[in-house]
Amino acid sequence: MSDYAIVESGGKQYRAEKGGMLVVDRLSEDEGAKVMLRPVMFRADKKVVLDPGELDKVKVEAVVAGHERGAKLRVFKYRAKKGYRRRAGHRSELTRLEVTDVKLLTRKPAASKPAAKKPAAKKPAARKPAAKKPAAGKSSGSRSSSAKKS
Fold first, then answer.
1. Going residue by residue through the chain (150 aa), what tens digit of pLDDT does each one get?
2. Model pTM?
3. Across-strand partners of 104?
4. 60 with 37: CB under 8 angstroms?
5. Chain-centroid distance, C-alpha 96
6. Cβ(13)–Cβ(7) under 8 Å?
């Protein structure tokens, strides 16, 4: 039995083995880019790793093989005797990953250097709140003057 890991991508879990293919929800990486997947569990022969501290030592690396679309799902809503029919369709955006490496390192890998950040885009000037207009008033003497006469 080969080493494998359970990885998380897009809120779903997948079994990743070296040389295997995974189809996950669309990732923003370009084709050919290396992707590090987050392990949730690792198993090698008789050793199982579940501890978050030990999972930091697990390396699961994949390469983006391509982007594709899933099968078309047809959604049809119908209410009997009402003349109500709605038809819609949906195709999921997917990414195919080829798992290149699944292994347990002897020590935790060093944190990678963050990419040079682009300067933040300038935000447009905040709008000033509009001046409040006086409420459209009712005639002031209608009710109060009748109360005074009696």
1. 578 999 999 999 999 999 999 999 999 999 999 999 999 999 998 889 999 989 999 999 999 999 999 999 999 999 999 999 999 999 999 999 999 999 888 887 777 666 666 666 777 777 777 777 777 766 555 555 555 555
2. 0.66
3. 58
4. yes
5. 17
6. yes
